[in-house]
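Students often ask what a holo structure prediction actually looks like on paper. The answer is less mysterious than it sounds. You provide the chain, you provide the ligand, and the output is a string of discrete structure tokens encoding the 3D arrangement of the protein together with pyridoxal-5'-phosphate.
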Amino acid sequence: MTDDPRRLATLAVHAGEPRPQPGHAVVTPIACTSTYTFRDTAALRDHFEGRSERDEYGRYGNPTVTVAERKLAALEAAEDCALFASGMAAITTTLLTLLRPGQHVILTADGYRRTRQFVTGFLGKFGVEHTLAPPGDHAAIAAAIVPGKTRVLLAESPTNPYLRVADLHALAQLRQHHRGLKLVIDSTFATPINQQPLTQGADLVLHSCTKYLGGHNDLLAGAVCGDAALVGMIRELRGVLGGVLDPHSAYLLTRGLKTLDLRVQRQNATGQRIAELLAAHPTIEAVYYPGLPDHPDHAVARAHMRGFGGVVSFLVRGDEARTSRFIDRCQLPQIGPSLGGVESLIEQPALMSFYELSSEQRLAVGIRDNLVRLSVGVEDPEDLLADLTRALADL
Ligand SMILES: *Cc1c(COP(=O)(O)O)cnc(C)c1O
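The corresponding structure tokens follow.
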């Protein structure tokens, strides 16, 4: 872990940025280049023998990407960070680095759908076994560990869409009796503003930077942060598999990260207010938000998180049609997948990620037809509250 004593909002603006920048600019430039040149063959020798810090070819590194990597590493209190073309590229490259045929991975059962597909389908074809463990049930997770075989415990926290929060300290404890087990946390919903998993004992932290870290619904990116040796191995495989981030998106990510603290503080505050409004509303059947006292992980979230996030999930009292009517009546939140951006987005999971399933199949994976997921943006909270109140009235 790094020991930069500055606080997160300061790191978000300044960490990773060289001073002075090329041309004495205040902002990191976009190094739009596929390859790099060497002054002479001696410079080439210096590079390959580790005597110079420079880039060689675009699939192995780019200075604009490096700035974003260093900034995010500082925010996660990590020694190193590797960026990827998407969250899924980061997740798949990380798992392929850590796992070999004959080994075993545990994934929390409500994990991101494509992560689950990769673990249960793709990795299975390559002889990696898996167990899906119920989120929030540490005894079941502990029982799923196969001594000598389980190499990765991958958990999301908070999860989608019910915002289950893992006790990372408790999960990290499990490694005491299982040497070689790595705790990998997908912290996309939390951001380093709300939790830093590495400071709570995780070995690696993953992000879909597409969400809060980029924060403006204008880029796709993924990240893995952790100690230099592990991230170095993952970066090596990135250079083989090729899922690198391009410098334009890295520039947008750096720009987005500078306001991460401001945005997430606002989204935490508005999320809490919206959750409270909905919880008290007669047309709402249930609200899932870790900042509410009746959420199953409220105590864990209070103990280990600095904020509860900007995603609020809830059930509208009634059927699929009434829920759709409510969503169609909302004027500020737009209908769309994804989350974490400045624009509020709303979706009915039954009609989005789970559209091709029947109601019964959806129920089996815990998705009810009247479930709504709202990703709170940075609009004025009064306007959002008024819009939701109006959309719910006389539904
Ligand atoms: C969106 C998301 C991903 C996938 O990230 P992409 O950038 O879309 O590839 C992985 N994990 C979680 C928790 C996500 O929300």
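The chain has two domains: 8-30+61-258, 261-392.
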